Amino acid sequence: MSQEEVGQFIRLLCHQWNRGSIPVETEKQQRLVCGCVSVDVLAKFKLCEDGLLRNERLESVRSERNLFLQQQSEKGRKSAEMRRLAATGVQPNLNRSSTAVQPVLQPDSQPESNSPSPSPSPKEEDRSHKSTRQRFVPPALAEVESRCSEIGMPLIEAQKFINYYESINWIVGKNKMHSWKSALTGWKLRRSESLGELASTPSVKKPLNLKDSL
User: Fold this and answer.
1) How confident is the model at residue 35 (pLDDT cuts 50, 70, 90)?
2) Strand runs (DSSP E) across the chain, as ranges?
C-alpha cells in the first residue's frame, strides 16, 4: 500500500476499534479518511452478517485482549480470596507436595556406608532442618475449641487464647510459636493456678505402729 492508503487503513481501524465497525456508506467512509477510500483498503474489511464492515484481524486482537483481561480479573479474585482465608486463619489448599530424598538402606536397614557422596556439613544440616520445619499457621477458633474439649477446659477460653496471642503476633518468649496445642496446655495450667484449682500434694500418712498403740 502507498503511504496514503496506509493512512486511510489506520484511520478506519481506529474507528472500528472505538465503534466496533466502520460505516458501509461511501460518504461516511470518505469523511473518516478525508478523501476517497482506496479499493485495496476496503478489501481488508469484510461485510459481516449484521451488515457492517469489520477487519477480522482487529476483531481477533480484541477477543484476545478481552480474554486476557478476564483471566487477569479471575487471578485477582482468587488472590483476594486467598488473602481473606489467610486473614481468618484458614490455610488455603495450594496442592503443593514436597518430596524428601531418603538414604539408600542396606538389607540390615542401615545406611549404605560406601556411599560416594560426602557427608553434609553442619551448616548444610542446619539449613536442611530449617527448610523441613513447617511454617506456623494460626489455628481457627473451631480447632481451639475442639482442643479445649479434649483437655477439659471451658470453650470460652478458646476465644481468649486466640485474642491474646493474636495481639502479640503469636510470639512465645522471643520466638515465633511452633505449637499452639502446647501453648494451649500451658494456658490451661496457668488458668488452673490462678483459680487455685491445683490441689497441693497430699501428705503421706505414717503407717500405724502396733508398738506405739500399746
Assistant:
1) confident
2) 46-47, 53-54, 171-172, 175-176
What is the Cα–Cα distance from 177 to 155, expressed in whole angstroms? 21
Residue 77 to residue 200: CA distance in whole angstroms: 58
> Whole-model pTM?
0.34
Is residue 151 within 8 A of residue 158, CB to CB? The reply is no
Contacts of 55 (CB under 8 A, 6+ apart): 12, 13, 16, 44, 45, 46
- Alpha carbons within 13 A on the beta-carbon side of 22: 31
> Which set of grid coordinates corresponds to residue 169?
503476633
How far is residue 165's CA from residue 103's CA, in Å, rounded to a whole number? 40
pLDDT of residue 214: 46
Residue 190 per-residue DSSP state: H
User: Which is more confidently placed, 105 or 176?
Assistant: 176
